[in-house]
Structure prediction request, 489 residues.
Amino acid sequence: MGKQMGQLALAFSLLLLFQPAFCAQAPIERFANLTFEPDQQVSFHFLLPQRTHAIVKADGAEIYVIEAVSGKTLREAKEIEALLVEDAKSRTKLEAILSSALSFPDEVSSAKAEAEKKCMQYTGTDLHDCTDKHSCILSCMSVPLCSTPLYSDGFWEAILDWTTSRKAFDAAIGEYRMQLNALLSNASSIESAEAVLMRLEALSLNMSANPIFLNRTDEGCAAGGTVRCFEFCQKIDYSASRIRQEKQNLALLKAALSEIASQQSRAKAIAEASRRQDEYVSSRGRDFEKLRIRTLSEAKKLRERAEKLSGKVEDGQLEMQLAELENLSRQIALLGKSSLYRQAFSAESSFNQKHSEVSARIEQDEKAHNEAQKLLSDISNQLERSSWLLDDSSKSKYAAILADYSKNLSSPQTPKQLSEAREGMRLLKSQLSEEIAERAASQQPQLSPPGAASGDSRQSAEAAPAVPCLPGLFILLALFAQPRRSYGK
Prediction:
C-alpha cells in the first residue's frame, strides 16, 4: 500500500512538472488562435537581430508585428519601421558590406603604393611632373637609369600615359571615398559610386597593359612580337580583382539600401493591415449573426412561397433550386459555428445569387399560372357575352374545352403544361373571336344582342320603317274580347 502511494505521489509530481509544456500556450500562439481562423495558414517570422518581435503572417500576408513574450502587437508605423529596418540590416549583412566598401580605397592605395613609388623614382616623375613630351623627357633625364631607354620608340609616351592614368586613378579613389560617405546619408548617390568604380576598373586595366610594365613573359612581348615591352618598372598591383569584388559588393550594398528604404512603406502596410484585421475581429461575430439570421429567414420565406405555389404549379427545377438555397443557408450557419467566418462571408454572394434565382423562378411560375387563369376567365366571359350569336353546337364545344382547361388548372401543373395551356387558350380565344365575328356579320343589321344600349335602339328606331306597336294592340284586343258583366240584374 505504501509503495502504491509512493508511485502515485511520483506520478503527480511529474504531472505538475510537465504540465506547462503540455497545457501552456505561448502568448503569440494564443493571440493567433484568438485572432485568426482555423483554415488560415499562420506563421511567425522573428525579426533580427534581437528576435524579440515577430511578423505575423496569415496566408502569406503580413498582418502584425508582435512582441513575443507579452503577445502585444505594435500599432504605430514608426515603431514597426524601426524594427523592420534593423531586421533588414541584419539579413542583408549591411554592416559587413559597408565595412568592405569603406576599406576599399585604403586597400587599393596600399596595394600599389610601394611599387608605384619605385617606378616614379625610376622615371623621375617623383621629382618633375610629367604632363607633356618636354616635361616627361626632363623627368626621365633626371634619372640615369631612365635616360638609356628614353629615346626608344614610345617610351616617353608610355611614361606620360602611365602618369596621367595614375593621377586619374588616385583622383577616382578619392572620389569613391566621398561617394561612400555620401551613401550613409543619401542612398541615391550609389549610382555615382558605381560610375566611379567603372572608371577605376578601366584605368586599372589600362595601366597594367602599359609598356613600361610589360616583360618578355607577357603575350606579344617575345622575340618577333608586335607589342612594345620595355620591362622598365616592376608590375604594379592596381587591384583589378579587388575592384571586381567591390563592384559585386556595391551591388549588394545597393540592394541592401533599397530594401532598407522600402521598410517605411512596408511598415505602413502592416499597420494598416493590423487596423483592418482588428476591425474585422471585433465585428465578425456580430456580422455573422446578422448574416445567419438573414439567410435562414429569407430561405424560409421563399420556402413558404414555394409551398403555397405548389398547389398550383408543380416545378421540379424550383424545388432543386430551393433545396440548394436552403443548403447554402445551413452551410453558412455551420461555417460560423466552426469559427470559419471568412468562408461564411464568402458564401454570402453565392447565397444572394441563388436567392435571386429562386425568387425569379417563383415569380415566373406565379405569373405563368395567373396568365393561364386570366385567359380562362377572359374566354369564359367572352363566350357568355356572345352566346346569343352561337349555335348550341359551338357553345357546347367551347364550354367543353374550357371545362377541360379549368379542370387541369385546378390541380398543380408543370411549367411546360402551363405554357402549353396558355398557348392553347390563346389559340382558342382567337378561334372564338373569329367565329363570333363571322356570326355577327351574317345576322340582319336591325338585330341587336340582348341588353343592347338604349342609344343604339333609338338610332335603329329612327332608321327603320314605322311598324305597329304590337304589344299594345294585343292588350287592347284582349280587353275587348273579355265577356261583359250585366249590372242591375
In short: The radius of gyration is 54 Å.
